[in-house]
């Protein structure tokens, strides 16, 4: 089949127009390319830093004047080390004759006032109560009656010590609170040989120890009363009881 050309279509009719448009576009692009300014390339450089593990710094050197040498100190005093075991120590109680000077003076004054003016012999007066230190015949524990008179006081002391050790009981609360001290117990031995506690005195805060000391003396057995010129009299005595933890 033969193709027929359209007489109304002329391909060269607008060619000059297209050529001019293209030439204008090329010139415009060329102008823009020439006039367009670009920034200078920035060259970046990297430094290789070697870390040697430490930074070198300036070290300030301080110089001090030579120190004055002082004389050596004196040797320390020796320290005494005491090893304390957790046990109760019952210190042996020594019974001492306690002079009751005030009471003796009062008795002597009373004797002189009562009998001196009448001309009666002062030695004939026998008070109802005497201190342990001046009594002629000391009170006796059971079993001490057969001892010679020179041994009777020592026998009394030995029996008193045995009695305290036998009946001694350290209060638990006082032991926990570490309460220690010496307690003085003043007691009276009656004409019937019975013992009555008159006063108990210990260090401050030792009420528990005072109570225990009173209990020990109140448990004394019936004693043979003391005598003055073969007459039974009351005898006042003081016994110390030491409470010690060590």
TrEMBL record:
The keyword Membrane applies. Residues 99-111 have a biased composition (Basic and acidic residues). SUPFAM superfamilies: TolA/TonB C-terminal domain (SSF74653). The chain crosses the membrane at residues 16-34. Keywords: Cell inner membrane, Cell membrane, Membrane, Protein transport, Transmembrane, Transmembrane helix, Transport. Belongs to the TonB family. This is Energy transducer TonB. It comes from Flavobacterium ardleyense.
